[in-house]
Amino acid sequence: MNIYVSNLAFNIQDEDLKAFFTPYGEVTSAKIINDRETGRSRGFGFVEMTDEEASKKAIAELDGTSVDNRTITVTEAKPKEKTNRNRNWM
């Protein structure tokens, strides 16, 4: 299951994000999303876990908790909507 985590402190790294979820089960990936131009964290990331039940438990228990004095939001990630940025407008 893919999990979306937002309102993260800008100093949180991929390893930190993985550590938040590891007590709930196997984490296959944890990625903080960085700004393309500055390289700084955008304050959100994604976690993938192999076990759906463990993922649901992690979401339920971590959503609304405080990490580095920020209340994080943890939800099931929704598929990215496709956008057509290269439209030719006449």
Describe the structure.
The chain has 90 residues and is of the alpha+beta class. It has a single domain (2-76), classed as Alpha-Beta Plaits. The chain is 21% helix and 33% strand. The radius of gyration is 15 Å and the shape is globular.
In short, what is this structure?
With 90 residues, this protein is an alpha+beta fold. The protein has helices at residues 14-21, 52-62; strands spanning 2-6, 27-34, 41-49, 66-67, 70-71, 73-76. The protein is globular and about 35 Å long.
Distance from first to last alpha carbon: 42 Å
Strands in their spatial order, largest beta sheet? 2-3-1-6
Number of domain units: 1
- Mean pLDDT equals 92
CATH superfamily: RRM (RNA recognition motif) domain
Q: Say how many strands there are.
A: 6
Tally of alpha and pi helices: 2
CATH architecture annotation name: 2-Layer Sandwich
Structural class: alpha+beta
Strand coverage percent: 25-35%
Rg (CA only): 15 Å
What CATH first level would be assigned?
Alpha Beta
CATH T-level fold name? Alpha-Beta Plaits
Low-confidence stretches: none
Q: Secondary-structure element sequence?
A: EHEEHEEE
Give the biggest sheet. Answer: 4 strands, antiparallel
Helical content, roughly? 10-25%
Main attributes of the structure:
alpha+beta; Alpha-Beta Plaits; two-stranded antiparallel sheet; four-stranded antiparallel sheet; 21% helix; 90 residues
Secondary-structure map with pairings?
Layout: E1 2-6, H1 14-21, E2 27-34, E3 41-49, H2 52-62, E4 66-67, E5 70-71, E6 73-76
Antiparallel strand pairs: 1-3, 1-6, 2-3, 4-5
